[in-house]
Automatic annotation (TrEMBL):
Belongs to the acyl-CoA dehydrogenase family. Residues 190-317 form the Acyl-CoA dehydrogenase/oxidase C-terminal domain. This is Acyl-CoA dehydrogenase. It comes from Amycolatopsis acidicola. Its cofactor is FAD.
């Protein structure tokens, strides 16, 4: 267990170094992140979601751009289908950074023969896609030539697009090897966003504490004021709870995923809001950069399910709708 924790610490430190400057897909590929969950026999690292979660948290801390979160979700989808040459080659190419597959979790698509029709709105990182993966009753549909129209959102660090298939050719249909794959992938996506929100919350608390230690008002550091101390303490408590929920969700099932997504993403908006307030007037300026974290946290709150939706899912356990034992686990 100690060696495992040490490896995560090393991965975290490396990720911070990589994300310290301008980061493009080439840097992400050199760091080996696309291949973290790719099996070793396909030239990947053979790691698990716990390692991917470390990187996702650091991406949130840096408010980093790029399609890595969507690619990691696509790799998770490919790992849920039965082995066959198309899947194996796609895993190999994705791990090497040569292909950027994008998973379309929600949409209205239908497969007729070898043709695909339908559309999906606000697909994360659709403009970066090299190919698309679409879950369907037949399995995981692989398609290349789909139409993508970029859709702007409040968060300038993310890209979304409308994906349209008009009798598009289906490259392949991969059969799922596990029950309820869609729920597993939705849980995985929810926890990934919670990791991002946890990272950006950590960054905002650290920035606020540092600012309170140098900013003076009435001849005193503002960090000495009781109101500022209380606000920072509240942020810290929220952050500690968020960290425990994410830790449980990374290796947990649907219940833990819903708990983490509902609490962590809502708390992140509150934490960044407090950070902006405690930075004073400069916190509301473009130059401070706090606005980028607030917009990202706001989008995270609704991405892959709002807190209210996930709380509603949790409440279904007590009405006998949702079995207490989750159907699967994330890692």
């Amino acid at each position: 267990m100690t060696d495992f924790a040490e490896f995560h610490d090393e991965l975290r430190a490396t990720a911070r170094d990589v994300l310290a400057g301008e980061v493009g897909w080439a840097q992400v590929t050199r760091a080996g992140w696309p291949g973290l969950e790719v099996p070793e026999k396909f030239d990947g690292a053979g790691a698990g979601f716990a390692e991917v979660a470390v990187v996702l948290r650091e991406l949130g801390r840096a408010a980093a751009r790029g399609p890595y979160p969507a690619v990691a979700l696509s790799v998770a989808a490919l790992n849920l289908v039965e082995p066959e040459p198309v899947r194996d080659e796609l895993l190999r190419e994705t791990g090497a950074g040569r292909v950027i597959p994008i998973l379309v979790l929600d949409g209205d698509f239908r497969v007729e023969g070898a043709r695909l029709s339908g559309s999906a709105e606000f697909v994360l990182d659709a403009p970066s896609a090299g190919c698309f993966l679409l879950p369907a009753p037949e399995g995981l549909v692989v398609a290349d030539a789909l139409s993508v129209t970029e859709q702007p959102v409040v968060d300038g660090t993310r890209s979304f697009g409308r994906v349209v298939a008009d009798e598009a050719a289906v490259s392949s249909v991969l059969r799922f090897a596990v029950p309820e794959p869609l729920q597993l992938l939705r849980d995985r996506a929810a926890v990934a966003v919670a990791c991002d929100s946890l990272g950006l919350s950590e960054a905002m608390l650290e920035a606020t504490v540092a600012y309170a230690g140098i900013r003076e008002q009435f001849g005193r550091k503002i960090g000495s004021f009781q109101a500022v101390k209380h606000a920072c303490a509240d942020m810290y408590v929220q952050l500690r709870v968020a960290g425990k929920l994410v830790e449980a969700a990374v290796g947990g099932g649907s219940v833990e995923a819903a708990m983490a997504k509902s609490y962590v993403c809502a708390a992140a908006v509150d934490i960044v809001g407090k950070a902006m307030q405690l930075h004073g007037g400069i916190g509301y300026t473009w130059e401070s950069g706090v606005h980028a974290f607030l917009k990202r946290a706001t989008l995270n709150r609704s991405l892959f399910g709002s807190p209210a939706m996930h709380r509603r899912r949790l409440s279904e356990r007590y009405r006998g709708v949702w079995p207490p034992a989750p159907a699967g686990r994330l890692s």
